[in-house]
Design brief:
Strand 6 and strand 7 (about 250-260) form a beta hairpin. The chain has helices spanning about 1-5, 10-20, 25-40, 50-65, 85-90, 95-105, 110-120, 125-130, 135-150, 160-175, 180-185, 200-205, 210-215, 260-265, and strands at about 80, 185-195, 195-200, 220-225, 230-235, 240-250, 250-260. It has a seven-stranded mixed β-sheet, sandwiched between helices. The chain has two domains: about 1-70 and about 95-150, Butyryl-CoA Dehydrogenase, subunit A, domain 3 (Up-down Bundle), CATH 1.20.140; about 160-265, Nuclear Transport Factor 2, Chain: A (Roll). The protein has about 270 residues and is an alpha+beta fold.
Length: about 270
């Protein structure tokens, strides 16, 4: 079964990442799951892939339940700096930062039910024992979580259009053009930077001086962040921030800013 675990490692890490929102914690979960698999009697396991998924999921669930009123930490998105089309196509299959932030607001049982069923097609009958609930109750948890996820800003599928809108945002930022910023922001845009949350197009645009500082002082490189258009910035050669944008109806509906140095160092190649 250990050989099967290694073959499944990439998928199992994706399960752990979407459960925990942190690559470091996902790796810790995989290490603990590996030890459990090594010690387990697997002679009667009929579905190795499904069994391994539930082992990793149970470890992640315990980690989520052990969390206690921790300070808000921005989840770890996949940041792809490659300009190769085939690699970008893979990156577009990753979970966006807006999705990860919403997942982080779910209760542990809700998150497990939604992630395993909706993202990895695990049947409710297999999920229910993990959270000690009936399949019907598990289905209800996933449905509640799904509604929260569906209420998040939905991105445009068209990546060139996303980049066009983000480029317009950068141009207006560089020029200190308040009305230009307002024109590319959705009226209900949400700006998140750590624990800070700002809502509303004109309110967010009112922070134009901050955006202008990014745009004029920094070296900017366009990237994909969780498969969505974004950019990373360097100031005086030092990695400074990553900004992820969710574009909806050709307007920026959400902006997520990551500035934690250790997190950035782990995410940006």
């Amino acid at each position: 079964m250990i050989a099967q675990f290694e073959q499944e490692r990439t998928r199992l890490r994706a399960v752990a990442h979407r459960m925990l929102g942190s690559f470091a914690e996902a790796d810790d979960a995989l290490q603990e799951a590996w030890l459990k698999v090594e010690r387990a009697d697997t002679s009667d396991v009929e579905n190795p892939q499904g069994w391994l998924t539930t082992v990793v999921a149970r470890v992640c669930l315990n980690m989520l339940r052990d969390r206690r009123d921790h300070a808000f930490e921005m989840p770890d998105p996949v940041i792809d700096t490659s300009e190769e089309p085939e690699q970008q196509a893979v990156a577009k299959d990753e979970v966006g930062l807006a999705m990860l932030v919403v997942l982080d607001t779910l209760k542990p049982d809700e998150r497990l039910a939604f992630v395993l069923h909706d993202m990895f097609a695990v049947p409710f009958d297999d999920i229910a024992p993990l959270i000690e609930k009936t399949p019907t109750a598990t289905r209800q948890l996933a449905s509640r979580a799904r509604k929260r996820v569906q209420d998040r800003p939905q991105p445009n599928v068209d990546l060139p259009k996303q980049r066009e809108v983000v480029s317009a945002f950068l141009k207006a930022s560089r020029e200190g053009d308040l009305e230009g910023l307002v024109s590319v922001l959705h009226p209900d845009v949400i700006l998140k930077a750590g624990a800070l949350e700002v809502i509303g197009g004109r309110t967010v645009a009112g922070r134009a001086s901050l955006f202008r500082q990014y745009a004029t002082m920094a070296e900017i490189r366009e990237v994909l962040i969780g498969g969505e258009a974004g950019f990373v910035t360097w100031v005086d050669g030092v990695l400074f921030s990553a900004m992820a944008f969710t574009v909806r109806d050709d307007k920026i509906a959400a902006i997520h800013v990551i500035q934690d140095k250790q997190q950035l160092a782990a995410l940006v190649p």
